[in-house]
Amino acid sequence: MEALNGADLPLIDLSLFPSQNVDQNQLESHEFNELRKACQELGFFRVINHGIDSTLIQSVECRIRDMFALPAEIKNRAIFPIFNTGYGPSEVHEVTKDSTPENMCFPWDHLLPNSVEKISAKLWPQGNPAFCEELNAYKTQVRDLSHRILKLLVWSLGVDISSQSASELFEKSYGNLRMNYYDKSTEKEMISKAHTDISCLTILYQDDVGGLQIRTKEGKWMDSKPLPGSFVINIGDILQMWSNGRYRSAEHRVVYGKSNKNRLSMAYFHDFLDEFEIRCPEEMIDQEHPRSYKSVTKGDIVAYYKKVGPNLYTPLHFKLH
Predict the structure, then answer these.
(1) Which of 64, 261, 265, 282 is geometrically suited to a Cys-Cys bond with 206, CB 3.0 to 4.6 A?
(2) Dihedral pair phi/psi, residue 278, rounded to 5°
(3) Distance between alpha carbon 51 and the CA centroid of its chain, in Å?
(4) Which CATH class is domain 3-317?
(5) For the chain, which residues make up each domain, given as ranges?
(6) Which parts of the chain are beta strand (E)?
(7) Are 106 and 116 spatial neighbours (Cβ–Cβ below 8 Å)?
(8) 28: which residues sit within 8 A by CB, 6+ positions away?
(9) Integer Cα distance of 116 and 105 in angstroms
(10) Sign of the torsion formed by the C-alpha atoms of 305, 309, 313 and 317
(11) Residues linked to residue 267 through DSSP beta bridges, in sequence order
């Protein structure tokens, strides 16, 4: 299927949004209308003026590239038996099949306490305190950004941010950081598995190589060109279900062909503890918008995901109608 050329993601300037409670006039502003439209139609948007230190981003990128440049036998020491933790080698298949880039996953502490330090110790037995310090600082800043964006999304849906249903989006949440690395030495084109994210939302940093594609409502693949200094945000399955289908979790993939540069992306997933109940708030349910999804836990979604894999659309399985 051909990709759409010349199209790109809606641009959201976070400096134009309030940081505290909003009133009705603000909710009806151009900025909030554009945010709602992006979440409803595409499920992806790009943010600028996000507040994360650009110097820190550049330094972390350099350190992650150095990490992936380590010999394979050293990186393999960081393979963990825990799901989405530590190192994952690349799997490159024929162009018609799904490929997986090299990756390194740093989960939040409830899955692996001090994950950055423990994974780092596998790679550098003598220690690498600068790597740990900067990566932990980046994790903290991107976590704070995820909370800020999620608050805007909750407000945009007309839900009181102090309500119990909204509060649990923050109280029972955590974040996973995954680095993906595409090696230019590969002789085959890599097309990653088309998928949706089962998390709440994703904050993606990507370098200037490009390759991200999003499937539109019409079923076409849309190219997203990198924009320096920005992050790509996408709605995940959990937020689609929590919003009663108002916001869209879109399929996406990466297409990486021959290049003179390795491709690096860093994805932060805002996620939840297994006991978190995914249930649309009552204030978003009415005759025109009946409840669309079963009330399930994050653990139910993970169990389904592990059973069928990422190629089936998770929200559809839990639909009521």
Answers:
(1) 265
(2) -95, 100
(3) 18
(4) mainly beta
(5) 3-317
(6) 3-4, 11-13, 44-48, 86-88, 102-106, 173-182, 190-191, 201-206, 212-215, 221-223, 231-235, 252-256, 263-272, 277-278, 296-297
(7) yes
(8) none
(9) 9
(10) negative
(11) 178, 204
Q: Report the C-alpha gap between 239 and 250 in whole angstroms.
A: 11
d(CA 86, CA 68): 12
Q: What are phi and psi of 190, to 5 degrees?
A: -105, 125
Assigned token pair, 4? 């759409």
Backbone φ and ψ for 53, nearest 5 degrees, come out as -60, 120
Tokens 């350099």 correspond to what residue? 62
The tokens describing 145, both together, are: 């950004």
One-letter amino acid of 13: D
Tokens matching residue 111:
């899955």
Between CA 31 and CA 50 the distance in angstroms is: 15
Q: Scanning the structure block, which residue is given the tokens 């948007």? A: 45
Decide: residue 44, CB within 10 A, 0-12 exposed, 13-18 middle, 19+ buried: buried
Token pair of 223 as six digits? 């190219």
